[in-house]
Design a protein that fits this description.
- With 202 residues, the protein is of the alpha+beta class.
- The chain has five helices and ten strands.
- A ten-stranded mixed β-sheet has the order 1-4-3-2-10-6-7-8-9-5.
- The protein has a single domain, classed as Beta Barrel (L,D-transpeptidase catalytic domain-like).
- The radius of gyration is 16 Å and the shape is globular.
- It starts with a helix and ends with a strand.
């Protein structure tokens, strides 16, 4: 008996058990308890929409920029067993000019230094100015300039518990998905080439 991709994705979410998410790297059982349902649904819809471009459907990344930077808002969803690992991620300085810790706006414009919303496909990793990094390709009109803007996933010193303790918020990137050095290996491993990251606000 065959099942549609939409049915399988829906069943994967609907069948999860709920639990309370805790900050940091805490594993929780229940995607719906970690990610706002509306944002989760948009990410799953994007996975279906761009399905021909996404080679792997085991892990999905969701950056919930409706949360402040002090919250672990970069969720790594395991679509096989329903577990989630949540990490800190910085937003772009152009998205938060006053450095309040909250993303105020998205932009796809070159030199905006802002975060772009939408679906991204992960491409090859490489060693660059920020160390080991992961290239991204924007798949939507809202982030179509991602590759040209060199928007990538990389580690950053300003995404750390020390920075949160000192400032109460993370530092800002130039539009990249900057994560802590402690999180980088896991993020690069789980979201390696051919997977989808979705960025948005609930």
């Amino acid at each position: 008996m065959g099942f549609s991709r939409r049915w399988l994705l829906g069943a994967a979410v609907a069948g999860l058990t709920s639990a309370v998410a805790r900050p940091g790297f805490t594993r929780i059982s229940g995607i719906a308890s970690a990610v706002t349902p509306g944002l989760l649904q948009r990410a799953l819809t994007a996975l279906e929409l761009h399905g021909d471009l996404i080679a792997h459907r085991d892990f999905l990344g969701i950056a919930d920029f409706s949360l402040p930077s002090r919250s672990p808002r970069f969720h790594l969803l395991n679509l096989i067993d329903g577990s989630v690992r949540s990490h800190w991620v910085a937003h772009g300085r152009g998205s938060d000019p006053a450095h309040t810790g909250w993303l105020e706006r998205f932009s796809n414009e070159p030199r905006s230094n802002a975060t772009s919303a939408g679906a991204y496909r992960t491409d090859a990793s490489y060693l660059g100015a920020h160390g080991q990094s992961l290239r991204l390709e924007g798949l939507d009109p809202t982030n179509s300039n991602a590759a040209a803007r060199a928007i990538v996933v990389h580690g950053a010193w300003y995404v750390s518990e020390e920075m949160l303790g000192r400032c109460g918020m993370l530092g800002r990137s130039e539009g990249c998905f900057a994560v802590s050095h402690a999180s980088l290996d896991e993020v690069l491993t789980r979201l390696g080439p051919g997977r989808l990251i979705y960025a948005g606000k609930a």
